[in-house]
């Protein structure tokens, strides 16, 4: 059973869309390029990321091009599609980065974005935002077509939090005398919550008002 519910819901949102992409694709803040393998056979992939990504455990890949986190080093209308997953929360000026992604898209090109909502602080101190669906839609005002959907629900959030607590309790620097009993109590509860969360992701049992995050698809209008 998949434990990383953020990754699972991102993949569910992205996979059917990326499989249809053809032509030049830009992955902004690509990290270790986890979604590159979902692209269609006709896609030509380019990944860019900030040099500091390696400070947070990201492996260095020679094919990933550096950029400053705002200015994308390509000309106007260079790409057919742009991907930006779990990145905007780390952008000091997300409006500027979205404007740059729109600039490098061809007319009619597609932008896919995912952002977390219920997520712990990560990549500190460069974790600046949590976006609602309304804020995300406002960021994409300059596009001709925009759709935003929730990733996960409150049951997935509950399971995710229990898993995070369990991982923290399992750290070896914590005293075994009290963390072992806590883990013995938490493990079955987290297991049940995870099973319920998986059921909810497929059956829609939970509330979308408290999601793990959001996915957005936007299309650039004609020139």
UniProtKB/TrEMBL annotation:
- Transmembrane ranges, per UniProt, are 176-202
Q: Which Pfam families match?
A: Methyltransf_11
Residue span, Methyltransferase type domain = 26-113
The GO biological-process annotations, alphabetized, read as: methylation
Q: Does the keyword Kinase apply?
A: no
This protein's record includes keyword S-adenosyl-L-methionine:
yes
InterPro entries named among the record's database cross-references: Methyltransf_11 (IPR013216), SAM-dependent_MTases_sf (IPR029063)
GO function term, MF aspect, one: S-adenosylmethionine-dependent methyltransferase activity
Keyword tags = Membrane, Methyltransferase, S-adenosyl-L-methionine, Transferase, Transmembrane, Transmembrane helix
CDD domains on file: AdoMet_MTases (cd02440)
Entry-linked PANTHER family: METHYLTRANSFERASE, UBIQUINONE BIOSYNTHESIS O-METHYLTRANSFERASE, MITOCHONDRIAL
UniProt protein name:
Class I SAM-dependent methyltransferase
């Amino acid at each position: 059973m998949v434990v990383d519910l953020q990754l699972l819901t991102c993949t569910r949102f992205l996979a059917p869309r990326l499989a249809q992409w053809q032509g030049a694709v830009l992955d902004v803040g690509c990290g270790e390029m986890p979604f590159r393998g979902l692209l269609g056979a006709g896609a030509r992939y380019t990944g860019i990321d900030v040099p500091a990504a390696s400070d947070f455990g990201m492996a260095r890949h020679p094919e990933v091009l550096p950029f400053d986190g705002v200015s994308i080093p390509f000309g106007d209308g260079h790409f057919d599609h742009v991907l930006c997953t779990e990145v905007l929360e780390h952008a000091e000026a997300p409006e500027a980065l979205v404007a740059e992604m729109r600039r490098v898209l061809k007319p009619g090109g597609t932008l896919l974005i995912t952002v977390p909502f219920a997520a712990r602080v990560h990549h500190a101190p460069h974790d600046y935002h949590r976006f609602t669906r309304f804020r995300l839609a406002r960021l994409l005002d300059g596009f001709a077509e925009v759709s935003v959907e929730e990733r996960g629900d409150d049951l997935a959030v509950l399971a995710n939090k229990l898993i995070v607590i369990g991982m923290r309790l399992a750290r070896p620097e914590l005293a075994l005398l009290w963390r072992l009993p806590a883990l013995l109590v938490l493990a079955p509860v987290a297991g049940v919550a995870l099973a319920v969360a998986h059921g909810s992701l497929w059956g829609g049992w939970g509330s979308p008002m408290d999601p793990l995050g959001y996915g957005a698809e936007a299309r650039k209008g004609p020139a």
